[in-house]
Amino acid sequence: MAGVRVAIVGATGAVGQELIRILEERSFPVASLKLLASPRSAGSTLTFQGEALPVEALTAQAFQGTDLVFFSAGASVSQEYAPAALAAGATVIDNSSAFRMDEEVPLVVPEVNGHLLDEGPQLVANPNCSTTILVMALAPLRRAAGLRRVIVSTYQAVSGAGARAVEELKAQVRAWLEGRPLEASILPYRDGKRHRPIAFNLLPQCDRFDELGYTKEEWKLVHETRKILGDPDLPVTATTVRVPVLRSHSESVYLETERPLAVEEARRLLGETPGVQVLDDPEEQLYPTPLETSGQDPVFVGRIRKDPFEERALTLWVVGDQIRKGAALNAVQIAERLAAPRGWRG
Ligand code: A2P
């Protein structure tokens, strides 16, 4: 096949635009690129390989003649339109939560469970951004020493809540500097009863609460981590917090292994893992931060410490650009791994 006929659903969104950039940067063998979004965006253009391409309104017929469709327009759009893409014979890589916990659908971080792509599944789910960043750090430690328990607190950038949340943070910072009241209508989540400012604040709520008092985002971390690691009973407890950071999610991770792991060994294991970069030197005050890691591909790990009271426990500080490895890059890596079983070539 002379190149892959690709479509992106949600091409105008933050992840969609990053997908376009990453396909270009990694020289994915694109024969043609169809950009799909809501009717609001129809008629606008986006640039791919120096060429302005039109954005079209999504319809179920749009998938005729495509080989590969990335969905990144939310779960309801995936639920409604992915069946049409599959029926048209395309391979679907879905960035929404629509199919992640479906037993028939592989949920893949290529460095962790990429073998699930060897048979060339037609539908693959891309995990939640916080989960991808977490499992990149957990997997090599688990492989070496087993894993008994994980407690994670996240510090999530506003871009994870969409372009309007980014605008809201910027408008609030401007208002604060000009002495005006801070107006909030998006965060902690769009349809919530109550909105609070994110500027100069923290919101210990990403998405809605359930009857146990956990948010959907917290349950995604629990269930998706278990599925990707192939450990359905792994105890994972998550607290997800929105912070006034534009891009890159950070996570404070406490983990208990089956056998004790020395800090040096953990550093070595993480340092040898493709896609992970250790930035950890307390002497030099070296550790990852969201500002310094934005726009980069690796998941960064620092602050690797032993729990002084539990010899099998370690604490890590993990930071990753949630739009790249947390979403678009992981999706393109899935596509790259599917190239051989699907017979895609440049
Ligand atoms: P549009 O820009 O036309 O609204 P983000 O998560 O960054 O807000 O991006 C969401 C993406 O999903 C955008 O590309 C948006 O297109 C697209 N989208 C949202 N709703 C629909 C829909 N009903 N049909 C097609 N695309 C949609």
Please provide a written account of the structure:
This protein is an alpha/beta fold. 31% of the residues lie in helices and 24% in strands. Helix 1 (14-25) packs across helix 9, helix 4 packs parallel to helix 6 and helix 4 (129-145) crosses helix 9. The strands form two sheets. The protein has a seven-stranded mixed beta sheet with strand order 3-4-2-1-5-6-7, with helices on both faces. Strands 9-8-10-13-12-11 form a six-stranded mixed beta sheet. Strand 3 (45-48) and strand 4 form a beta hairpin. The mean pLDDT is 97. It binds adenosine-2'-5'-diphosphate. The site of adenosine-2'-5'-diphosphate (A2P) has 16 residues, from helix 1.
